[in-house]
Amino acid sequence: MKKAVPDRIARLRAGLAESDLSGLVVSAPSNIFYLSGFTGSSGALLITAERALLFSDFRYRLQSREQAPDFEFVEVERDLFQRVGRVSADTCAGRLGYESAHLTCELLGHLTEGLQSRELVAATGLVEDFRAIKSPDEIVHIRAAAALADQALDHMISLLRPGATERDIALEGEYFMRRAGADAVAFDLIVASGPRSALPHAGTSTRELQPGDLVVIDIGAAVDGYCSDMTRTFAVQTATEQARQIYEIAHRAQRAAAAAVQAGAICGEVDAVARTIIDEADFGDCFGHGLGHGVGVDVHEAPHLRKGDDTRLAAGNVVTVEPGIYLPDIGGVRLEDLLVVQADGAETLTASAMPAELPVV
Ligand code: ZN
Ligand code: ZN
């Protein structure tokens, strides 16, 4: 991590010059971590052509030195963004960028006050664009996070039986990953059973599994600041013909779209590979979300595999491929793998089996 920081700052500086910015105020925690290594709960960066500053408070005086040795630490007692504005006004002439997608209106007000009349420019996506392409070091962390989720899934499958609650199964998965070395879960784990499996982002409830339920398990771990993400679907003890059918279609869509992932492929076209298969099976209305997303410091980041997106995939992108079919009040299926984009294809980081037929447990 540490030796990567100077490279990232250098790349950002080149990006600032191209955007005609004299500096950037970074406020998104994931961008702060990516650029500096700092993980504190409160802080901001100011990066200019000459200087790299980390603003935070007393609580992080020592931590910042350890995590972000490439940054000058500025200790702020209160009104952090006003101070960032004042220092920016003194440090850099010209246009100053800020992350409009991440700064609240209130904090933007503080920043503007501190800056006085200096020109402030919305500069969202600058850091995110760099983050989309992972270095080999970053992929090591994502691979480790994916491996923990694979192991946790095996454990969770062993708990799938009538009477078990979604919440207990999710908690067991979380505990398993934490004990096996995850810093945290990448997101609130999803265990959605029966009719709840038709809710793409269901979370968990106290619902008890019943024979014949579809169960969607969507889990990810965070390791060294990097996330993983994967989904599998199971049937409890028995499965209807319809459940088998939607599983088989989702599986075919997943395989075909995953095979289309490679450097140079257009995100919207990869999405269309899966969407066409589901449309042609007459379930197009039941697949209402994008095919996939980038994964890294955040579990959802660039690039996005979605309808109409003309971004081209690049080697080093890490993306999910996760088609789903959701039948309201009945149940749903989603199958999600995590892939590293390569020049001539992709490597699948998810190792858990994805059988062609609905697994009944
Ligand atoms: Zn997921
Ligand atoms: Zn996902």
Explain what you see.
The chain has ten helices and 19 strands. It has 361 residues and is α+β, with helices and mostly antiparallel strands. The protein folds into two domains: 5-130, Creatine Amidinohydrolase, Chain A, domain 1 (3-Layer(aba) Sandwich); 136-348, Creatine Amidinohydrolase, CATH 3.90.230.10. The strands form six sheets. It has a six-stranded mixed beta sheet with strand order 4-3-2-1-5-6, sandwiched between helices. Helix 4 (80-91) packs parallel to helix 5 (105-115) and helix 9 (241-259) runs antiparallel to helix 10 (267-280). The two termini are 41 Å apart. Bound molecules: zinc ion (2 copies). One zinc ion binds at residues 218, 229, 231, 336. One zinc ion (ZN) binds next to loops.
Report the count of strand segments: 19
Q: What fraction strand?
A: 15-25%
Shape: elongated
User: Considering DSSP H and I runs of 4 or more, what fraction of the residues is helical?
Assistant: 25-40%
Highest CATH level, the class of the largest domain = Alpha Beta
What's the layout of helices and strands?
Layout: H1 4-18, E1 23-26, H2 29-36, E2 44-48, E3 52-56, H3 61-67, E4 72-75, H4 80-91, E5 96-98, H5 105-115, E6 120-122, H6 126-131, H7 136-157, H8 166-179, E7 184-185, E8 190-193, E9 214-219, E10 221-223, E11 226-227, E12 230-235, H9 241-259, H10 267-280, E13 292-294, E14 301-305, E15 318-321, E16 324-327, E17 331-334, E18 337-342, E19 345-348
Parallel strand pairs: 1-5, 3-4, 5-6
Antiparallel strand pairs: 1-2, 2-3, 7-10, 8-9, 9-12, 10-11, 13-14, 15-18, 16-17, 18-19
One zinc ion is lined by residues 218, 229, 231, 336.
